[in-house]
């Protein structure tokens, strides 16, 4: 497996949208293509590849403070979940944020994935809530870098 940066205007970026749609939206009867991804033009996007096939993706965005970065849309192809790909992607995103001066990383985790993030050192804070674009229970989580 190879993890590499994905450019916003590349074919790999379009492939990342398709993967996110398959894993995160179609099971909810939704389409990711109805969402606005313009903020990702300034984000750090990583893809995990087996040969030419994208098997995972994660997005890291800066927050207003700059000391905090935010993980969005971390997902792994359902056929290989629990194989360590998500953990490797998350570590790579954390390393990137740390190297750029971030001291904390945050994310909105589906409650169903909360255990994964806790095993990776994240702590929940706040109440459980639903997002408009993903109407399943979510919780805010953070980790010191």
Keywords:
145 residues; alpha+beta; GNAT family N-acetyltransferase; transferase; Acyl_CoA_acyltransferase
* Helix/strand class: alpha+beta
Q: Largest sheet at a glance?
A: 7 strands, mixed
Helix content: 10-25%
What is the CA-based Rg, rounded? 14 Å
pLDDT below 50 for ≥5 consecutive residues: which ranges?
none
State the CATH architecture: 3-Layer(aba) Sandwich
- What coarse outline follows from CA principal-axis ratios? globular
Total number of beta strands: 7
Mean pLDDT: 94
Tell me the domain tally.
1
Q: Total helix count?
A: 3
EC number: 2.3.1.-
Organism: Enterococcus asini
Pfam families: Acetyltransf_10 (PF13673)
Keywords: Acyltransferase, Transferase
Structure, briefly:
The protein is of the alpha+beta class.
Describe the structure.
The protein is α+β, with helices and mostly antiparallel strands. The chain has a single domain (2-144), classed as Aminopeptidase. It has helices spanning 11-25, 85-99, 114-119, and strands at 2-5, 44-50, 53-62, 68-76, 104-110, 123-130, 137-144. A seven-stranded mixed β-sheet has the order 1-2-3-4-5-7-6, with helices on both faces. The longest helix is centred in the first third of the chain and has 15 residues, at 11-25. The chain starts with a strand and ends with a strand. The mean pLDDT is 94.
Summarize the helices and strands and which ones pair or pack.
Elements (H helix, E strand, L loop, with lengths): L1 E4 L5 H15 L18 E7 L2 E10 L5 E9 L8 H15 L4 E7 L3 H6 L3 E8 L6 E8 L1
Parallel strand pairs: 4-5
Antiparallel strand pairs: 1-2, 2-3, 3-4, 5-7, 6-7
């Amino acid at each position: 497996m190879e993890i590499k940066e994905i450019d916003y205007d590349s074919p790999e970026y379009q492939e990342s949208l398709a993967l996110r749609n398959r894993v995160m939206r179609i099971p909810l009867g939704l389409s990711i293509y109805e969402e606005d991804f313009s903020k990702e033009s300034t984000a750090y996007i990583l893809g995990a590849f087996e040969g030419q096939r994208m098997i995972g993706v994660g997005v890291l965005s800066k927050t207003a403070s700059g000391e905090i970065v935010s993980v969005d849309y971390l997902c792994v192809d359902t056929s290989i979940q629990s194989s360590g790909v998500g953990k490797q992607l998350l570590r790579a995103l954390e390393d990137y944020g740390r190297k750029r001066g971030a001291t904390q990383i945050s994310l909105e985790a589906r409650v169903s994935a909360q255990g994964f993030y806790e095993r990776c050192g994240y702590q929940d804070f706040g109440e459980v809530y639903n997002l408009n674009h993903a109407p399943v229970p979510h919780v805010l989580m953070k980790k010191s870098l």
